[in-house]
Design brief:
The protein is an alpha/beta fold. It has helices at 2-22, 53-65, 100-127, 142-153, 164-170, 178-183, 205-211, 217-220, and strands spanning 45-48, 73-80, 85-88, 91-94, 131-138, 157-161, 192-197, 200-202. It is globular and about 50 Å long. InterPro entries: Rossmann-like_a/b/a_fold, UspA.
Length: 244
């Protein structure tokens, strides 16, 4: 009887895994959900994933700390580079000069690589009984793509991984890692961004406060020889947007 129960549990886990595999699909993101999935729910959790080990650390931290109920939906965000060149035996061709067959063959291989990459993250979610969806975005700038998603989907909870070497630079906010670029952007003001290194959360806000002249307590403290105006106010002037 116990053996039969174990077989049923294993079959259910396999079925959950198959459902997860079906969610690895690539579709154009238009800023609205497809089907019955609500992408911009306040309870949703978004995790950026890629090839580095820090991505799995970020996912595990999110599962352990931010999945508060069975209704919480977790989104895996994977940004992959735009395809501009198609390899062939003698080198590579621009996408425009390659034949349709060459393009389709290469794109199929790349899709399979992304699918294989995402499987381990989906299996981790399935093992923890977490509802998961995937968002795949084609962009040459990971940070910019995620910043746009924060605005489009009204993301409130975002978890990003960071390796140890970048974490050292992040303490002084002098690096150009994806978490740092996002934290320095205006998009970070719209949601809570958690940065995870080796399974532990690191504080990016303190580093930003210490290294930003406009936010540093020392910069805001009046000098001894400077009179304090009790009627003074702080004005925030937004810079005009420029077309990039």
């Amino acid at each position: 009887m116990q053996r039969r129960s174990n077989e049923i549990e294993e079959a259910e886990e396999e079925e959950d895994g198959r459902r997860g595999l079906e969610s690895v699909r690539e579709r154009e993101l238009e800023g609205r959900s497809s089907g019955t999935v609500s992408m911009n729910g306040d309870d949703n959790v978004y995790v950026g994933v890629g090839k580095g080990d820090s991505s799995m650390d970020a996912l595990r931290w999110a599962i352990d700390n931010l999945i508060t109920s069975s209704s919480t939906l977790l989104f895996l965000i994977h940004v992959f580079p735009e395809t501009r060149f198609i390899p062939y035996p003698l080198g590579r061709l621009t996408r425009e000069k390659a034949s349709q067959e060459q393009v389709e063959s290469f794109m199929s291989q790349e899709r399979e690589k992304r699918r294989t990459l995402l499987l381990k993250f989906l299996h981790a979610c399935s093992a923890s009984k977490v509802k998961v969806e995937t968002i795949l975005v084609e962009s040459d700038s990971v940070a910019k793509a995620i910043q746009d998603l924060i605005t489009i989907l009204n993301i409130k909870k975002l978890v990003l991984g960071m390796d140890k070497s970048n974490a050292r630079k992040a303490t002084v906010m002098k690096g150009n890692s994806v978490p740092e670029l996002i934290m320095r952007s205006s998009a970070a003001e719209m949601c809570v961004v958690k940065v995870i290194c080796q399974g532990r959360e690191i504080s990016m806000e303190e580093a930003m406060m210490l290294n930003s002249p406009s936010k540093s307590p020392l910069a805001q403290r009046p000098r001894k020889d400077q009179p304090v105006d009790p009627f003074a106010c702080i004005c925030f002037i937004s810079k005009p947007k420029t077309n990039s």
